[in-house]
Amino acid sequence: MPRLIRSGVSTIRYVGRALGGFGVVVNVISVVVLTLAIAEPASTAAAVAVVGCALLVAGHFVVEARGKDADPLRMGIRPLPRAVTTASALVVDTATGRSWPTVIAAGLLMALVVGEGAVRRPVKNATPQAANIPGWEVVLPSTAVANRAFLATTSAMVLLSVCAALDVTQAPAIVVVAVATLLAVQVALQSARYLVARNRFERNLPKILAEIAPVFAFHWQAPVGTAYQASMWLPYLDRIGAPYFVLVRTIANFTEVAKMTTAPVILRVGLEDLDPIVTPSLRTVFYANTAVRNSHMIRFPRLTHVQLNHGDSDKIASVSPTFRQYDRNFVAGQAAIDRFAKHGVATLPEQFEIVGRPQLEHVQQATGPISAIDGPTVLYSPTWSGFYEDSDYSSLSAGPLIVEALLARGCTVVFRPHPYARRHGGNSRACDRIIELLTQDALVSGRRHVFGPAAETEMSVVDCFNACHAMISDVSSVVSDFLISTKPFAMAAVSATGDAFTAEFPLAQAAYVFDAPRKAGTVDRLDAALDGLLGDDPLAETRRSLRTYYLGDTPPDQVVERFVETARRYL
Length: 571
Description:
The chain is an alpha/beta fold and 571 residues long. It has 21 helices and 13 strands.
């Protein structure tokens, strides 16, 4: 039966689209029913048609709300069929000699439906203005309350139609109309309060920024779920010791970053919204990715624009020509600079500053050879599949085979995939299979594998590094970061094999490489790689020699100081 219902809904939606959209069909039907009600208001046909139309309109919202692109704010959607259906019910009801309370209730209901459009706009477009600036937080109108008001008006419309058709008391409908009115008034007051507060904030923004007197800003715009890009830099921007604010460009980014810093956070969505924040005291803007909206700030030539990036790896994204638009690129080591020349991306030497990776200050060093450890812990940290085919370096399709091989060797596994891993269906299924394997093995062997939220959110990358004796990963920034620990690691060759892989990704010289062809779900040379990784570790010296090349020559306990000193030179 559920399948039959889904098929019916799909058919209705298809027919609706073919006729110009489901909403257009509902509009036409409601007008036809109103015409019928006016022509023969006391007829059974009119009563049945009114009820049927009311149910069709209500069903339309149910179908629309379940769609993939459903609008989270329901208030104000399709006012015409709801108002026309209410009018139809009123016509039928009046023909039977109803009292004035019914007429007033129906009129009020139509006014609510039509008036929703005026309230919908401030609720829909409401955005927070700032966080961590005392006295200037703006309270947004509640989408939940607005949706409850929508539900109440639609329910009242259906009740009004049913009661009119059955020629029974309209008391239930009148009660629901009263509830809808109270909710609508509540949303209207919330919207008015928001608009007043927003306008007040905009008027006083120059004064607010003058009081903060920011020397630099941190610009961050990224897809939802990538807050790690900001969180890895905010503690070190704090250590610079100069007043600054975080500039975000979307509501989602605002919500994420406001939870992770005590620095002022300001949301500016449009290009034109940026002019007021470029105050006389502002000298520098830092960035943590190459988002398109970064250019909105780079257009201010008097500011110094510094790219921090959120990781350093041999991925093709690390040599994007977009890095040339920044005045300075802070990089971990010489490898990041040479990578541009290797790929034919012309850059100026003075555009770079080697600052190391301050995020690695607490990474613990290997305490001895891994071969002396019984049942070592191995971190499996695969990357994601990227936005494009040429940036897909993920070994997750072969991830279950990799984990099975580790379990067969008596290893404890820490499984931490990239935050974007589950955005790809095949990778998501691989993650589920890996977690299933680790769960089953933990029950049988008693080994305390770490996975899920425990590894992905409760532990940082550094925590995962410190919890393991070795790592398996892909072409990813976690590999170059892992160099700081001097612990052994293996890499999955996804986009190339053999010498071609090492030539394309020089860090592989220090890795135990095995083949995991892109999306094939197979592995080759894995046993040999694990023999080296967990055994005599012949590449230990190679890792030590490449560590300086990739991460700079600053000792881990001094790398934060180096970053801070370098950053201060550009303020």
